[in-house]
Structures are given as C-alpha cells and as structure tokens.
C-alpha cells in the first residue's frame, strides 16, 4: 500500500445498468489505486464507488471516472429517487493516512480544474474545499437538481461555478468536488409507504433543523417504502446507535417504526463496536475484548502474550540508540499521544453509563477531539525525526555550497513548526483532560492524573525542542512569531 492514503467516494448517477458502472470502474483503474467497494441502487439510480490510493494517482483515477461517466450517462433521460445534478454527481476526497484535510482540499481543487479543462463540465467545490460559505453544504449546491441548475446557471450569480463557464454540460450536467472527513451513508426504512413521514423524520434528525450534530437527513421513497436517508459526518461524536434511536423516536410520533436499516459503502469498525456497546450495555467494554481485535494485535506484534512490550519496545530501543533521532521531539509527541489516549479511555468509560448520561454531549465532544489529537501526535513523532534529518542534510550541503543557506532556514522552520504544533496540541490536551475531572468516574482519577503529567511533559519537551532550533534561526521575523506563540503557551 502507498505511504499516503486518500479515500475517494465518487457518486455516479447510474444504479441500474451494471455494464455502465463496470466501464466507469475500469476507467478508474490506475496504478496505486484500489477498489474497496461498489454499491448500486436501482431506486436511487445511483452508484457509490469507494477507492483508496496515493494522493497523485487517486486524483487521476477520479478524473478519468468523470470522463467515462460523461460518455455513458445522459442526465436528460435519468430518473431516480436521489437528488442529482451531474452524471458524476459528487466526488469527495477523505484523508486516511499520511495526508491532512488541507491536502485533500488541494487535491479537490486540482481535480475540479482538470475536469473542466478535459471535459467541459462545470465544477462546484463543497465541504472543506468550499470557496463560499453557503457551498459548504452539498444540498445548497444541488438545490433544483440538474434541470434547475441548467435553467439558471447563466443568469443566477449564486450558480457561478468555481471552475468553468456558466453553462452545464448538455448531458453530464455539473459536478461537485470537495474534501471532507470520513462519512457514513446510513438509511433507515420505515414500515410505511407515506414518504411525507420520512421527510418529517429526516427534517427532525438533521442538524440544520435542530437535530443531531453531524447528521444530514432527508426523506425519500425507495422500493415502495418511506426511507430516511442520512449522511453521518462524525460517528465518533454522534454514534450511529444514537441516530437510529432518534429516528425510531421521531417515527413513533407518526405511528410508524423502523423496518430495517442499511449502510451504503463502508463504515469504520469502531462505529459498529460503539453500536454494540450502546445496545448491549456491556460494562467496561473496549475494542480489545473482541477476539479478532486481540488476535490482530498479538499476531501483528502490537502486543505480546504478557502485555504491550512487543509493540512498545522497538520505539524505546530506538530512543536508547546512540543516534540523534528519534529524540526528545519524538518522545514528546509520543507522550502527548499517550495523554490523549488516556483521556479518551476515561471519557469512553463514563460515556453512555446511567450516572453520566447528563454529560453525554461534552464527553462525546472530548472523545472526538482527543481522537484527532492522538492522530496528530502520532504523525508528529515521525515528522520530528524526518524534520531533523532534513536539517542535518541542509547543514551538510551548506559546508560545500554557500547558497544552501535558504535550505537551512527552510529546514529549521519545519523542525521548529513540528514541536511547536506538539506543544500547542499538548496544551489543548491538558485543557480537555482537566475538563473531564468533574464529569467522569472518580475511580479513574489516577488515569487522568497520569494523562495530565504526560501532556505537561509533552508540552515542556516540545518547547525545549523549539528553543534549540531557534538558536540557529536566521529569519528574525519567523523567530519572533514563534516566540510569541511560545510565550502564550507558557
């Protein structure tokens, strides 16, 4: 697998003709890109393809898929339950490993511009890539669907594309491209044919109408049944089990109930583990209690039979080796990751328990933030070592090439920015852990105390690394800016 992983989940307006979908998938076969899933829905007349690959090749795969869809799909003849505005309706890019959301925004912009250049399909950017606030939400862009956009794009300034001229492609329409976090497409079927009930429930559950945070919902008719169709944009903070229960409660107001539910595309394993904990109410549940998870950890070398030593020992031995990296910067990031991990554990052990139901929202928010911080700390542990190596390389070059001073400054800036980010994240982690004390089980106070000690060590160690790099910094303006940040943290 590539060292950088980006997920792309293009939605094409074809769910009935398998041969057409096969051709689109074939067009997207590019080295370094892997097909994870394909879903076709005849009622929606829509297919959802899930790809994963390195940042460069997955962009090309998406572009080629759009081109093939434009050849094969005619929106003037398209009907289906799901709203659509393009043969390639929406193309999101999602960071998985080694890339950030900002990286995916850059990919989305590149892909959007290329689609217009190659196929003359106008592009709208959404979610994190949106250039206008109102275009963050997909439904705002897609309002009126293909026919409405086709009729108004030339005269309505709100319809001006982000890339391309003010005209839709005659048969392929327009396409929305963007960057977002992982999303779960989740649908609940109700035991009624009355689509108006589904629309009312969809309106109640979506956040924009006062419903659940990180939920987008609408009601449609599928296979003769009313369906609440939803996108869950953060299942860590709004678990899928809570969404199901909310839909069930709202449906009961109209005398109906869920008949079944479905997931379109893929879902993180943790989301299903959370659902199991929610419905089964297992005391002190965590994912390591699942047999397959424990086997994977042991067989993968992350755990020894006697504990965690097999996974932890390599990093400790690398720190002990008589080489400069990994060093204090990586160790600070590792301490921050452990601090965030302990905080997640403490919050997770209280969330969902009867005694702490009143703190459900802040606990869920803390778990979501700490999960993100944990990933940033882990990435910083490697980034600190890489940044140090670039500094060494730049100074070596400077010995024989006086013009390499610019490279030295650039390398030192990166070597400063990494631990500065660790210090800032450690500072935030301290604040979150302190906020958990009054709303979590007091029997876990020692875990919070340990987490706080680790977070403070991470902050102190990272700031020490910042200072050591500033000692050689030739850019006075940058050094002044950094010292202001450091002073604020102290």
From TrEMBL:
Name of one Pfam family that matches: FTCD_N
GO terms classed as biological process: L-histidine catabolic process to glutamate and formamide; L-histidine catabolic process to glutamate and formate
The Formiminotransferase N-terminal subdomain domain, residue ranges: 4-181
Residue ranges annotated for the Formiminotransferase C-terminal subdomain domain, each copy included: 182-294
GO molecular function: folic acid binding; formimidoyltetrahydrofolate cyclodeaminase activity; glutamate formimidoyltransferase activity
Pathway: Amino-acid degradation; L-histidine degradation into L-glutamate; L-glutamate from N-formimidoyl-L-glutamate (transferase route): step 1/1
Gene3D superfamilies per record: Formiminotetrahydrofolate cyclodeaminase monomer, up-and-down helical bundle, Formiminotransferase, C-terminal subdomain, Formiminotransferase, N-terminal subdomain
Keywords: Cytoplasm, Cytoskeleton, Folate-binding, Golgi apparatus, Histidine metabolism, Lyase, Multifunctional enzyme, Transferase
GO CC term, one of those recorded: centriole
Intracellular or extracellular location(s): Cytoplasm, Cytoskeleton, Microtubule organizing center, Centrosome, Centriole; Golgi apparatus
Broad class of where this protein is predominantly found: cytoplasm
Enzyme Commission number(s) of this protein: 2.1.2.5, 4.3.1.4
Entry similarity comment: In the C-terminal section; belongs to the cyclodeaminase/cyclohydrolase family. In the N-terminal section; belongs to the formiminotransferase family.
UniProt-listed NCBIfam families: FtcD (TIGR02024)
Oligomeric form and interacting partners: Homooctamer, including four polyglutamate binding sites. The subunits are arranged as a tetramer of dimers, and form a planar ring-shaped structure.
Function according to Swiss-Prot or TrEMBL: Folate-dependent enzyme, that displays both transferase and deaminase activity. Serves to channel one-carbon units from formiminoglutamate to the folate pool.
Protein name according to UniProt: Formimidoyltransferase-cyclodeaminase
The organism of origin for this protein: Koribacter versatilis (strain Ellin345)
């Amino acid at each position: 697998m590539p060292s950088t992983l980006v997920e792309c989940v293009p939605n094409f307006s074809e769910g009935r003709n398998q041969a057409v979908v096969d051709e689109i998938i074939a067009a997207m076969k590019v080295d370094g890109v892997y097909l994870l899933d394909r879903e076709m829905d005849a009622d929606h007349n829509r297919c959802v393809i899930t790809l994963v690959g390195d940042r460069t090749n997955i962009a090309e795969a998406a572009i080629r898929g759009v081109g093939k869809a434009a050849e094969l799909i005619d929106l003037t003849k398209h009907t289906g339950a799901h709203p659509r505005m393009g043969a390639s309706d929406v193309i999101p890019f999602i960071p998985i490993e080694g890339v950030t959301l900002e990286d995916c925004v850059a990919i989305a912009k590149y892909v959007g511009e290329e689609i217009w250049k190659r196929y003359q399909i106008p592009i709208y950017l959404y979610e994190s890539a949106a250039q206008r606030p109102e275009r963050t939400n997909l439904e705002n862009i897609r309002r009126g669907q293909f026919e409405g956009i086709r009729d108004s794009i030339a005269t309505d300034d709100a319809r001006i594309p982000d890339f391309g001229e003010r005209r839709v492609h005659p048969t392929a329409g327009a396409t929305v491209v963007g960057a977002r976090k992982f999303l779960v497409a989740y649908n609940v079927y109700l035991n009624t044919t009355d689509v108006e009930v589904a629309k009312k429930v969809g309106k109640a559950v979506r956040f924009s109408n006062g419903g659940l945070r990180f939920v987008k919902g609408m009601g449609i008719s599928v296979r003769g049944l009313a369906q609440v169709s939803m996108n869950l944009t953060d299942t860590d903070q709004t678990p899928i089990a809570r969404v199901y229960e909310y839909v069930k409660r709202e449906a009961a107001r109209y005398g109906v109930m869920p008949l079944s539910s479905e997931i379109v595309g893929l879902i993180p394993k943790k989301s299903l583990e959370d659902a199991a904990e929610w419905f089964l109410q297992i005391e002190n549940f965590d994912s390591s209690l699942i047999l397959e998870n424990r086997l994977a950890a042991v067989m993968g070398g992350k755990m020894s039979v006697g504990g965690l030593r097999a996974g932890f020992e390599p990093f400790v031995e690398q720190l002990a080796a008589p080489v400069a990296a990994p060093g204090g910067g990586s160790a600070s990031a590792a301490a921050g990751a452990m601090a965030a991990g302990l905080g997640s554990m403490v919050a997770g052990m209280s969330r969902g328990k009867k005694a702490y139901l009143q703190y459900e929202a802040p606990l869920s928010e803390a778990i979501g933030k700490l999960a993100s911080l944990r990933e940033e700390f882990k990435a910083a542990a490697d980034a600190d070592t890489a940044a140090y190596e670039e500094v060494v390389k730049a100074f070596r070059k400077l010995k024989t090439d006086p013009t390499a001073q610019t490279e030295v400054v650039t390398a030192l800036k990166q070597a400063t920015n990494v631990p500065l980010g660790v210090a800032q994240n450690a500072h935030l982690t301290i604040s979150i852990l302190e906020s958990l004390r009054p709303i979590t089980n007091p029997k876990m106070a020692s875990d919070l105390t340990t987490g706080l000690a680790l977070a403070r060590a991470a902050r102190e160690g990272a700031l020490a690394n910042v200072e050591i790099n500033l000692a050689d910094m030739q850019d006075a303006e940058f050094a002044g800016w950094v010292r202001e940040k450091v002073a604020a943290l102290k």
